[in-house]
Amino acid sequence: MKWKIIPTAVVLLAIGGTIAITHRLPFQASAHAAAAPPVPTAPVVASQVASHDVPIYLHGIGTVLAYNTVLVRSQIQGQLTQIAFKEGQPVHAGDLLAQIDPRPYQAQLDQVTAARDRDEAQLKNAEANLTRYTQLGHSGWATPQLIDTQTAQVAQLHSAIKADDALIEAAKVQLGYTRLTSPIDGVTGVRQVDIGNIIHPGDPNGLVVVTQIEPISLIFTLPETDLPRIQQQMEKGPLSVLAYSQDDTIKLDEGKLILVDNEIQQTTGTVRLKAEFGNKAHRLWPGELVDAWLHLETRHGGLTVPASAVQQGQNGTYTYVIKPDDTVEVRPIKVAQIAGGQALIDAGLVANERVVTDGQYKLQAGTHVTILHGKAAEEAAAQSAQQTPIP
User: Where in the cell does this protein reside (predicted)?
Assistant: First the structure.
């Protein structure tokens, strides 16, 4: 019977070993899996470094100034019988703005005109008498004294007519003053006098202010350190100037630089410049504060990235560069300018490298990233705008 027990024990040992192996293998697999967890990634939005021609601008703040601003006043006293403009209306030089009652001045003109007609009639009679007296004098029937007296009377009447002509011209000028016209091309302001009122030459507010809008000028300032560069570029030709709204979102007009002031403002260390704009669309308004972009030159083959890729840290300006293995590297960069949402890079990047433009607050050197595209990128950008970036 013993020979039957031994094989049974061997079978039991084999079965036990199999069970042990079967139960041990899952634990070994779990331990192996725990030793190599999946690499976490951060979703980001990215863009490539682009290479193209980039205009170089100097930025300053300026005030729009009109070349001409005229307060239209009356030069005579009278009652306003007509207002011929609307407030804010464009007008041309010579356009009628208002009419003063012309009747008193027309009557004065008629009076001096009648006086001249009278003097001309008297002159005609005096000249005829002088002719007769001269003929009688040749025959001895008129004395020299009579002839001299008549000659003097003719000369006197000539002078009287000249005086009448002067009075007529003065009366015509006064009558012309009853028409208040625009002295320049421009835009009218707020009307200061209503129809039916008596207007005087001494009225401090006058009738209305007319301001020239086309063309218009812009006075802006730049640091004096920029002056050598400006002078160097001016030698090559005229420089263009762009006028933008104060938030740099709306282009108002494009003009040209016409003047660099002849002195430096010592208190501020700045130089004043003057630009002229055609202003055909009337988007520049006198007294308006605008941002002036002075175009110095165009850099060919310049490297640009979206402005959102540029970060500021304790050690200066940097960006997150995505390496071929989809990890990020903190790369110091040098920015030449930021304009139109694009940053011009002087150093630190090469063309076609990938940089992170959104989602930087999740990153540090070596972080693995997943690049989002399309709608996912838009949603990530919107969510990122609500996050507070980590310094």
Answer: Cell membrane
Residue that has been written with the tokens 């139960």 in this structure = 23
**Do residues 316 and 236 both lie within one domain?**
yes
**Burial category of 8 from C-beta neighbours within 10 Å (exposed 0-12, middle 13-18, buried 19 and up):** exposed
What token pair was written down for 22?
Answer: 């079967």
C-alpha neighbours within 13 Å on the C-beta side of residue 334: 5
Angstrom distance (rounded) from CA 345 to CA 350: 9
Q: Which residues pair with 299 in a beta bridge?
A: 54
Do the Cβ atoms of 176 and 168 come closer than 8 Å?
no
| pLDDT over 90, % of the chain | 67
For 80, the domain range is 71-210
**Domain total for the chain?**
2
179, 194, 210 - which closes a domain: 210
Give the length of the chain. 391
**Contact yes or no for 172/109 (Cβ under 8 A):** yes
SS3 of residue 227 by DSSP:
helix
Distances (CA, A) of 15 to 4, 11, 24, 26: 17, 6, 14, 18
Which residue in 343, 238, 258 sits closest to 65, CA to CA? 258
Cα–Cα distances in angstroms (integers) from residue 67 to residues 143, 186, 275, 289, 306, in the given order = 70, 10, 12, 16, 39
d(CA 302, CA 344): 7
- At 319 the three-state DSSP class reads strand
The two tokens of residue 386 are 């609500």
The label of the residue with tokens 């949603």 reads 379
pTM exceeds 0.90, yes or no: no
Tokens linked to 322: 């995505």
Structure tokens given for 109: 């003109």
Q: Is residue 182 located within the same domain as residue 219?
A: no
Average pLDDT over residues 186-208: 94
From 210, 235, 270, the end of a domain falls on 210
Whether residue 179 contacts residue 105, with contact meaning beta carbons closer than 8 Å, is answered with no
For the ranges 35-44, 132-141, 168-177, 291-300, which has the lowest average pLDDT?
35-44
